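DM from R.C. (forwarded with permission)

"hey, sorry to bug you on a friday — could you get me a structure for this? deadline for the figure draft is monday and I only need the backbone to look sensible"
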Amino acid sequence: MPVIPYAQWNRPIEFAYRCATPIAEISFHSHSFYEIYYFHEGQCTFLIGDRIMTLAPGDLILMHGMTLHRPNPQPHVPYIRTLIHFDPAYIYRILPEDTVRGLLLPFGELRNYRLSLSGERRAEIERLLEELSRLYEASERGDAVQPFAYERFTLRFCELLYVIKGCCRQPVDRQIHRSERERHVQNIISYLERCYHEPVTLDAIAAELHLTKTYVSNLFKDVTGTTVFQYLYNRRINQAKIQFRLDPHMPVTKVGKAVGFAHPAHFTRVFKAAVGCTPDAYRRRMLELQQAGDSASPLLSASGV
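My reply, with the result:
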């Protein structure tokens, strides 16, 4: 099944089963809906928020929206994953409020959490994903032989949330670094997370981690698929988007400075390249949504991974 661009996803629960489409260019992105990501096969490191993960088949990631993330699959190796995006407000409309609070607790409390599944738990999740795929495809076809396919899909999705909640009841190793190289990259990311809003140089990172500047630059690119400064700029832009959503009255220059851009023109140029509009246009859109009392969350990404 091909990856569907986020901008074309218009159901409260969207599902793409066993995507195997190679992705020529993968950018950092964030979105306001929740995501369930299941890794079937391949070789991939996944950068999400301030953590890097080396994925293994059976890994399931719960994403809590608006967190910057980017997979880095190895080229010439099949990259097979299942993606589910859903609007938590929709789940509140179809189930009792207390029930939903419990089901979504892993997304809210754990945030961007990896479950490494094996044995019967993994088999149960994969059976559910296959059944969800069958019902979702029937709903897209408008299959008369399977009426109410999307409604049944929704019920099975709620069952999946229950299974995930059960998996989260026991301690799970949140982070496994499989090499010294990954530990170094994790330390680089942690440094950038602490200091993204300040002036950052490769010299400062190298000094902090007792590594050479060249090693820091080459290692980060090799493991993550992006450069240190591409990551840094995307982290700042993502924080700016969050700030505009929280307070659309804040002036653009103040937001740019708060997230680490010393020059307004640089902030505008980088923001437009990443988001597709100027920060002022984005801020006005957030202000319009606030004034209209629109609780719908705008989609903030243009490519699916």
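R.C.: lifesaver. Residues 119-141 form the longest helix (23 residues).
me: no worries. Residues 235-305 form a domain with the Arc Repressor Mutant, subunit A fold (CATH 1.10.10).
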